[in-house]
Amino acid sequence: MKLSLWFIGNCLAVAALATGCATAPPATSALLAPATTTVRPAPVRAAQPTGSRARPAPVVAPAAFRNPVTTASPQSKNEPAAGNSEHMRFPMAASGAPVLRGQNPVPGQNPASGFQAPADYNRSPVEQFAQEPLPTPSPQFPGVVPPGSVNPLVQPNVPLPPSVDLDVFVDETRTGRFMFGMGVNSNLGVTGQIVVDERNFDWRKAPTSWADIVNGTAWRGGGQGFRLEAMPGSQVQRYLGSFTQPYLYIGRIPTPFSMNTSGFFYNRRFFDWNEQRLGGRLALGYRVTHDLSLSGAVRAENVNISNLRVVGLVPELDSVAGNNDLFSGKLTLTHDTRDTPFAATQGHLFEVSYEQVFGSFDYPRGTLDYRQYFLVRERPDGSGRHSLSYNFRLGASGSQTPIFENFFAGGFSTIRGFDFRGASPVVSAARVVVGGQFQFLGSVEYMFPITANDMVKGVAFVDYGTVERNIEIHSDNYRVAPGIGLRISIPAMGPAPLALDLAFPVAHASTDDIQNFSFFFGFGR
């Protein structure tokens, strides 16, 4: 009897379930329902045995709501396809169940699936990403907010879009400058400086109106370099104009070659003569690596020697009086790893060059310059650097080298403790400084900070070397000068520090002119 009742009850349940699934509810709007619509009955599933959880058959919505009908992928359960933005507005369905796409006629409710959307479901993604209110502080700790489970930037239950559009707006930095400065040093006397420098020059962009000049678009935008410099002074004057193309092009294809061209006028009053140079230079450069470069240059200039202090006693000086034309070609190889060109603390500079000169005089010329910097110690933040450096310069020139192209030594840039050119060969009878065809100069220097902000540094050094009239070294002419000095950095006065040096020659030639104190002051704005 019990078995019969159980069998009849299960049959009635199956029949009722099949009847209810086959009958679809009427459309809620005649405008949304098509004229002819066929509704596919849902598949009838067999009854599950007693004790197992029955899985209800999927509910099929009217045709008005199935526009179109797709099936969620089993491998991406409850997640939309990449690029699908509608997951921000419509609910996710279980794997294998129909996913409804389209506008729901009943706001906030899907009659087909029975989903009841929350009140804030249709908020924009930006609103959904907003931070929720923080938890209430505990009465035992009124000033401490307990940690919450809400990420202030991204809610984990809201999938992020696969891509985001990013707009970048940049403004061109200042590439030009007008600088006015002055300098005083023991080699050149008092000098002034006026500089117009543009690092983004374009020679093809001539101004078409006054507005192009006012807003700064004239002659700008090509990435080239242009510099005008005027340096009047009490003992030396120099005027220079240069143009640099950092990358030469073949058609529209950039090459690793660079070009620099310049014209100059130079006038210097030496103790024994006045020297005036007028000429130009054209150079091509090739950057092999970031630190290694190769360059070739040609030079053409006229050198005028006048106001000779002594006439008829020094043949080397008499032979260059008047105008002299020089033309040369020069090759230079440079390897530079210094951290900064002013007061370097680590790295090295190696430069070797060969030049062949012809014209009024024919002679070869070779030079080698090597400087090495070692970082001894520094603070954890990189300040307070102690550095040890040494350098030497070697040069040789041909026998027909004119007196104004000879090597000279003496002063803060060569051997400190001597007057400018005061450590050079002289003609004893007339005391004319004639220089020499060979030089070997070196220096060892230790630099250390004195103040905590590195504005003032101290140096201890030993300069040594010689300049000889011929390619040889005489022990009687070898100079050695130890000394101490200060380096004062003032950013408002320019990148080069103020230099004060006091040196005491312990070995020198009998004809040398000793000057213990040498200095350099520079100011530029």
List keywords for this structure.
525 residues; mainly beta; Porin; 16-stranded antiparallel β-barrel; 4 helices; disordered N terminus
What can you tell me about this protein's structure?
The chain has helices at 2-22, 125-129, 210-214, 315-318; strands at 69-71, 98-100, 109-110, 115-116, 176-185, 189-201, 224-231, 236-245, 249-250, 253-254, 257-269, 274-287, 292-306, 322-336, 347-359, 363-377, 386-397, 426-427, 432-433, 438-449, 456-468, 479-488, 498-503, 517-524. It has a domain at 270-524: Porin. The termini are far apart. A hairpin with a 4-residue loop joins β7 and β8. A 16-stranded antiparallel barrel has the order 5-6-7-8-11-12-13-14-15-16-17-20-21-22-23-24. The chain has 525 residues and is mainly beta.
Strand order of the largest sheet: 5-6-7-8-11-12-13-14-15-16-17-20-21-22-23-24
Uncertain ranges = 1-5, 12-56, 58-115, 126-132, 149-156
Radius of gyration, rounded? 43 Å
CATH superfamily of the domain at 270-524: membrane protein fhac: a member of the omp85/tpsb transporter family
Characterize the biggest β-sheet: 16 strands, antiparallel, barrel
Count all strands and give the number: 24
**How is the CATH topology of the domain at 270-524 named?**
Porin
The helical percent reads under 10%
- Envelope shape: globular
Helix/strand-derived category reads mainly beta
Mean pLDDT: 77
